Amino acid sequence: MRNAARMIFSAGAAAVPLIAVLSSWTHAAGKLPAHLRCPAQTVTVGVETPASFPKPWWDTPYVMQLKSLSTSLNVGGKPGLSCIYEGGGKEWIVARPMAPDFKSCSISGDHFVCTPN
Question: I need a surface site. Which of 34, 70, 76, 95 has the fewest CB within 10 A?
């Protein structure tokens, strides 16, 4: 289920946009592969609008665990890197477009490995 909702990382309770940027990639000088990780292992999602409900109404947020990664979903019409979270019988995707300086990206366990151009 991909409803408009807020996402709060369990680790820091900071709200982030629906499509979040994956953590920065790092590699040594030259053409070594870049290793990218999802921004969190656990996320909490809930209703974003309205920002609050009149009493006695309240939201039931879902805590979701990182379950899988994908390179087959497009983001803005371009190849993307997706982190797929599951919890409470629902699915949530956090994604980013593949950087133009990468030739290709593959999945290796719990992270992406991207080959520079």
Answer: 76
